[in-house]
Design goal:
About 65% of the residues lie in helices and about 0% in strands. With about 325 residues, the chain is mostly helical.
Length: about 325
Amino acid sequence: MSQARTQPQDDPAKVAAFEARIAAGESIEPKDWMPERYRRQLIRMMSQHAHSEIVGMLPEGNWITRAPSLRRKISLIAKVQDEAGHGLYIYCGTETLGVDRAELVQQLLDGTAKYSSIFNYPTLSWADMGVIGWFVDGAAIVNQTVLAKASYGPYARAMIRICKEENFHKRQGYEIVAVLANGTPAQKAMIQDAVNRWWWPSLMMFGPSDADSPNTAELIRWKVKRRTNDELRQRFVNLTVPQAAAVNLTLPDPELRYDADTENWHFGPIDWDEFNQVIRGNGPCNRERLEARRRAHDEGAWVREAASAYAAKQRAKQASEAA
Ligand SMILES: [Fe+2]
Ligand SMILES: [Fe+2]
C-alpha cells in the first residue's frame, strides 16, 4: 500500500522533515504535521488496541460471579475495570488524530474493525483467570512496553500508565496460577489444562510472522513499532519459560528447547490456519463477543442520551450566564 505514502497532501519536503524528526527521536504531537498514511496507521493500530481492551473484559467478566473467594473477586473486578479504563484512555488518544470515538465503536459493532484474536477463546475454568493474567497480560506488557517508546506522543504516554496496571494484572494472574499449581491434584490438573489451552493462542497474539506482516517495515521506520512481531513473540517465550518451570507447569510444545547460540528458547511451529480462522470471525467465541458488545451498547443508549442532554443543558446555562 505504499501509494498512500505519496498522497497529494503529503508534500515530499514535509515528509522529509517529518522523517528527520522521527530519526532524531522526537515525539510527534497531535497538532504537528504528519503524513496521512502515518495518521491512518495510528488510527488503525490504536483503535484495534482500544477495542481489544474493551472486548478483553468479556472472557474474565464471565468469572466475576464465580470467583472462589471475596479477595479473588475484588481483584478480578478491579482488573476488568482497569481494562475498561485502558480502552477509554486509548479511544481518547485515537481522537487526537481527528477521528470520532463513536465512529470507531460503530466499526467494532459492525464487525469491520479487528481486535486481538485471543479474546475469541472461551474461559472454561477458574484456572483460566490465572493463565489469562499470566500469559495474556504478560504478552500485553511485552507489546506495550515497546509501544511506550512509540513516536506518537499520546499513544506512548498512554502506554506508560497502562503498563503499570498490566503489571498488577499479570501478578494477580500468576499468583492464582502458583496457588493452583501447588494445590490438590485436581487443582494442578485444572491449571495445567488451562496452560495447555492458552499457550498457543497467546503466541498468536503477537500477530503474523514478520514474513507475512505487510505493515511492519513502514511502522518500524516511523517508530510506531519498535520491534517486529517475531521479536516480541520470542521475548515473551524467553520470559515465560522460566516462570512455568518455577511453578512446575509444562508448556505444551515438544520442540521447546534452549538454544545456547542465540540465547533464545526455540519453539515449534504456530498453527497459522487457526489464527486466520479466528481473525476472520470463525473463532470459538467471535459471534458471542460481538453479540455481548452490541447488547451492552444498546442497553447503554440511555446513559449516552442522558449524558448528552446534561451536557446540552450545561452549555445552554453557561451561554445564558455569559449573555
Ligand atoms: Fe489492558
Ligand atoms: Fe490487563
